[in-house]
Amino acid sequence: MAAANQPLDASIPPDEIAERRWGELIIEGVIRVAGISSIVIIALIFLFLLREGLPAFLDIPLRQLFGTRWYPIEEMFGLLPLLVGSLIVTVGAVAISLPLGLTTAIYLGEIAPPWLREILKPIIEVLAGIPSIVLGFLGWIALAPLIQNLGAPTGLTAFTGSLILAYMSLPTIISIAEDALYAVPKEYRDGALAIGATQWQAIWRVVLPAARPGLMIAVMLGIGRAIGETMAVMMVTGNAANIPSLGSGIFFQPVRTMTATIAAEMGEVAQGSLHYSTLFAIGIVLFLISFAINALAGRLVGVEGLRRSRGGML
Amino acid sequence: MSRQQTHKLAVVVLTAVAAIVVIPIILVILYVVWQGLPMLSWAFLTEPPRNGMTEGGIMPALLGTIILTFGTAIVSFPLSIATAIYLAEYAGDNRLTRWIRMAIVNLAGIPSIVYGLFGLGMFVLFLGFGTSIIAGSLTLGIMTMPVVISTAEEAILAVPQQFRTVSLSLGASRWQTIRYQVLPHALPGIITGIILGLGRAAGETAPILFTVAAFYLPELPRSIFDQTMALPYHLYVIATQVPGMPLQIQYGVALVLLLIVLSFTLVATLVRTQMRRRREW
Q: How many Cβ contacts (< 8 angstroms) between chains A and B?
């Protein structure tokens, strides 16, 4: 490729050739520098979270930081209620979206006639495009009263958040799971059918096991989406920073997630105060969780596979 | 139950579940359109809010979202597309490349509220931009990078290798090959990525909460260092922070926001289909 730098056209004066080569060197230099921009940006993000959030880890005793009381007004910064809140909402969301998402992916990939597929897939893509604030608004104004009518003391509960989050993570789960199913060689299906399996047996016994790593990625990225979601969750979960009492009603109590806490309280805190750094500390926790999910998923399918999945999620 | 019966039952269940997934999506969109449509008028789009936002239109918020979308584009695209070109055309199979890819994958996974914190820490406070259009655009621009990079890279990689070989063998330099052979053919795919990224930015609330969004600001911003209202945050404010807000206006704002974001998705889909149809190789 180095020889290609010699233009064949002798009519171009030497000066211009030199100029052009300089121009190209500059452009290629810029592109190479831009190439590492993502590394720089992610380092900057972590750096600035640490810069603002580190005081919280240094100044608040760890026992208090992992305590059960989040009362910023009384300088009580226990993160446990928020962690538990995020956990409950996420677990609920995954419990709903996982069966729905995987089943829909199987339906789209294996059962649905092509014409129906062509209609259903864009509809699911549209869901991915609906802003979370719009879904949160609908949850707040239409879904919460509905859930209250079912007999809960309030409609703003962990379950309301889970339900909305479940639908928000469905496009991610469906699209990645479908890719995973699609990647299973056709011969596997044919082989199973040829030895007399029904189509369902072929799916259940052959295709699904073969697609397992991809399906697990779908689940993990779905979880990542649910933990990080902010606006919709903030509007519908009631924002009570208590650890819900255990029992069958656990999903039907108001909770407050980590993301919602940041969004709701950052506007009111004094810059540099302990409360302010604690909100950044929550940001650090969220950052690390998303890192951990990626690391785990990357271990399953490698960075290349993960990149493909992330790409397929758009 | 025989195997055939199991199969039939499975098909029924699968179909039912797919319906449970798809039907609420259609209902949600129809519901917002149904409730918001009566509100939609030229006056609603072009007048400022009046009387504590309980009357009038949404012009400052709508304009703010348009400005922020442009700002996002200016920040995100040069960097994202240069990165995509680097990854597709220049990067070797080495540790640095793997690090870059890992960084992009991780950027894609960071929650949007954390981008908001980052924007507050770096652009608003450290660089001293204050709560401003420039701080918000930088935050949103960085947030959209992973989407644009991966779509653009895919589009560049999809250009057949022979195009490059022929161009190089005719004496073109590496950059000339990229500039005149690869990029023109990858353009529709790159544009799709750009539009998808912008659609996402236009609908986001969490990253603009502390970096640019104003609760209520009847006059328009005069420079990039001013705050601005924005539609997503405006919807949050009128739905939860303003008592006695007429429902009609809330649905109207939700509908306008939905239409803006969905039109981005629609255009991206059209460009992609068009591209697939016109592809000559």
A: 286
Report the complex ipTM: 0.91
Going by C-alpha positions, the residue among A278, A284, A280 that lies closest to residue A75 is A278
Which residues, 6 or more positions from A273, have their beta carbon under 8 angstroms from its beta carbon?
none
Q: Which residues of A touch B151 (CB under 8 A)?
A: 311, 314
Q: Mutate which of A231, A259, A261, A309 to disrupt the B interface (most B C-beta within 10 Å)?
A: A231
DSSP 8-state class, residue A253: S
- Binned at pLDDT 50, 70 and 90, residue B6 comes out as confident
To the nearest whole Å, the CA of A174 is away from the closest chain B CA by: 10
The pLDDT assigned to B30 comes to 94
Q: A195 CB near a chain B CB, below 8 Å?
A: no
Using CA atoms, how far apart are residues A264 and A161, in angstroms rounded to an integer?
Answer: 16
Beta partners for residue B55, in sequence order: B50
Lowest mean pLDDT among A57-66, A131-140, A225-234: A57-66
Q: Annotate B191-224 with DSSP letters as a single string.
A: HHHHHHHHHHHHH--GGGTTTTB-S---SPP-ST
Tokens 């056709």 label which residue?
Answer: A186
pLDDT per residue over B204-246, tens digit each? 999 999 999 888 887 888 888 989 999 999 999 999 888 888 8
Query: Domains, chain B, ranges and CATH?
Result: 35-41+58-278 (1.10.3720.10)
Q: Which of A140, A231, A291 sits opposite B206 (nearest CB)?
A: A231
Mutate to test the interface with B, among A37, A288, A301 (most CBs of B within 10 A): A37
Q: Considering CB atoms only, which of A122, A266, A286 is closest to B111?
A: A286
Contact A237, A85 (CB under 8 A): yes
The residue with greater pLDDT, B244 or B156, is B156
Prediction pTM value = 0.90
User: Is B18 in Cβ contact with A41 (below 8 Å)?
Assistant: no
Tell me whether residues A227 and B149 touch, CB distance under 8 A: no
How many C-beta neighbours within 10 Å does residue B178 have?
A: 24
Q: Which residues contact A218 (CB under 8 A, 6 or more apart)?
A: A101, A102, A105, A172, A173, A174, A176, A177, A180, A309
Cβ-contact A205, A193 below 8 angstroms:
no
Identify which of A36-45, A152-161, A219-228, B241-250 has the greatest average pLDDT: A36-45
pLDDT tops 70 at residue B259? yes
Cα–Cα distance, B146 to B83 (Å, whole number): 10
Q: What is the pLDDT of residue B85?
A: 95
Residue A120's H or E segment, with its range, is helix A114-129
Distance of alpha carbon B135 from alpha carbon A47, whole angstroms: 18
Structure tokens at A304: 């290349």
Confidence of residue A6 (pLDDT cuts 50, 70, 90): low
pLDDT of residue A13: 67
Q: Are B80 and B149 in contact (CB under 8 A)?
A: yes
List the Cα angle B87/A294/B154 in 5-degree steps.
30
